[in-house]
Amino acid sequence: MKRLASVIMAAAFTIPCVGFAQEPVVGVADPESLFKDGDPKLNTNKQATLHIMKDLLQCNHWNEADKWLTARYVQHNPNVASGREGVVKFFGTRPRTPTCDKLTTKVVAVLADGDLVTVVMPRELKDPKDPSKTYTTTWFDMWRFVDGKADEHWDPAIKPPN
Question: What is the pTM (predicted TM-score) of this model?
Answer without folding.
Answer: 0.83
